[in-house]
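Human:
Take a look at this sequence-structure pair and walk me through the tokens.
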Amino acid sequence: MKLSRLTRDEPERFTAAFNFLSTSKNAKHDDVKLEASFLVLGDLPIASVEIAAKTLSKEANPFMPDDGSWYEIADTHAALQLAQSTEQAHYLSTAHVEEDEKSRTLKARRLFVEKYEQYVGRKLPDDHVWKSDSVSVVTHHCNLCCDMGWRSHTCTTDNLCSSCVLKKTHIYDHDYVERCLCFRTNPLFEARRARSQLSSRGRSNRR
């Protein structure tokens, strides 16, 4: 996923967007106002800030919008872009893994059919289900947790859970779960977090 540069790293692009917006409103501004807006919008992607400036310039309002309104539009756009990009990455990755697995499955199936036909001494019909190119594959980004985000373990004297380690005692073997190593990098979870962030932004931002 390509990350957009933040506004605080692009002062020249922000100044251009600020001047464009103020000119479209025929509003006067000074360096103090410019610096204040730059600080308010600094943590947002510059691309979203630029798009928000264009959106505000089209509103039928002769006044320079406040930084809060500008921030809301840019923030909502940034959250939407994040949700879309992570969702796209999820589908592209899944499709790639699925095609690889289908190819391996078909190859193994054809090899099995060849061995079977040699063993029984006869050819199977071309429309036999074993000769079909149709393969249904269940794929996961993480084979350790099957995209659940949690892994099951058994606490034993040789593999203590964090609770038993903390208490410095182990009474009996028991099952426990822990967060999978993929939790922060799994594209499926990234997409879910992005959608949740977008929903939260939609509720907090009025626009």
Summary: The longest strand covers residues 150-155. Residues 67-120 form the longest helix (54 residues).
